[in-house]
Amino acid sequence: MYVAVKGGETAILNSYRLLAQQRRGDAAVDELSVVQISQQLRLAVDRVMTEGSVYDPELAALAIKQSAGDLVEAIFLLRAYRATLPRLAYTQPIDTGRMVLSRRVSATFKDLPGGQLLGPTYDYTQRLLDFSLLATGTQPQPQTAAPTPAPAEAAPRVIDLLNHEGLVEDQAVPEGDPEPFDLTRQPLRFPADRSARLQNLARADEGFLLAMAYSTQRGYAESHPFVGEIRFGTVELCLVPEELGFEISLGDIAVTECQMVNQFKGSHTEPPQFTRGYGLAFGHSERKAMAMSLVDRALRAQELGEEVTAPAQMPEFVMSHSDSLESSGFVQHLKLPHYVDFQSELELVRKMRKAIVQQDKGAQPKPEEGPHA
């Protein structure tokens, strides 16, 4: 056993060296810097920050570089680093109504107070390869002036407009404002309240969440949603230190918020109205925020008295399988040695095959005797 362990250790160290060589690539090509990744692969950085639960573009870019672009591995690295950090304090809730907007669109109203703000988006591109990007000139490309962000008071949230008419459910802060569930410090338990569900969805693998959201639109939750509003911009992050007793600003962070609205037929206590699904992610992460809001609404089926028939409506199914680290680890552990298990099953299959062969021989009819036997 000792010899096997030593041999395995040497192989693993050699694997590290090969991995470093593969990650670096051709030494004749300039090495990709962390700054380049954070500036030019910002959407990948935003996803790693969101699912890694750390708002730090530099560290997320470092994780992407170290993982050679494997975003799930990068998320793993960032989560592992996060686990070493102390929890110093909790910030105040961010106010997305005061967001300094870079993009703001709604699919429910054509004319909005504050207007539609397209901002940076791939929505209107032709999805054709731009071969000019193969050129690597040293001169910076000319940049057009960025649009002036709309002031917060000029862009009220669509949900607030609907709420003014009483057409959408009002989600007021519960009495006593209970402390939200902290998924990073407490294990997931069922039934889970909405704060735990939203944290789980925010950290969920984007691909899994997208598939669940898609299923709700394909008849597996009887969902007919509308994008009430998508907002992307910066919000102020504030903290109230115990020793000061008043609020101070820590700076601004970029977030994407999505409010999805769904029709609700009403109940004995509630009139027909629209209900909400909510999504929030770090950086510019529209697909993630939209998928999150669709699944959040689907998971509220039982709360709203709707029949639970689809996987996306089942909290235990969705929340237990959404995490990329857990799902990836459980799948990839199959690469580890399973010699004993396989040999046991191999012997079982051989015995079953042998028993079937013997049974077939015993069931064969005996040849009939001839007249001169």
Distance between the termini: 66 Å
Major sheet: arrangement of strands? 1-2-3-4
Q: Based on helices, strands and strand pairing, what is the structural class?
A: alpha+beta
| Rounded mean pLDDT score | 85
Rough outline = globular
How many runs of DSSP E, i.e. beta strands?
4
Radius of gyration: 28 Å
Q: What's the total helix number?
A: 12
Q: Which stretches of 5+ consecutive residues score pLDDT under 50?
A: none
Q: What percentage of amino acids are in beta strands?
A: 5-15%
Specify the biggest β-sheet: 4 strands, antiparallel
Helix content percent band: 25-40%
N-to-C order of helices and strands: HHHHHEHHHEEEHHHH
Name the features.
373 residues, alpha+beta, 4-stranded antiparallel beta sheet, 12 helices, globular
Kindly describe this structure:
The chain is globular, with a radius of gyration of 28 Å. By secondary structure, it is α+β, with helices and mostly antiparallel strands. Among the domains are: 2-82, no CATH class; 96-122 and 147-171 and 180-203 and 225-287, no CATH class. The protein has a four-stranded antiparallel sheet. The protein contains twelve helices and four strands.
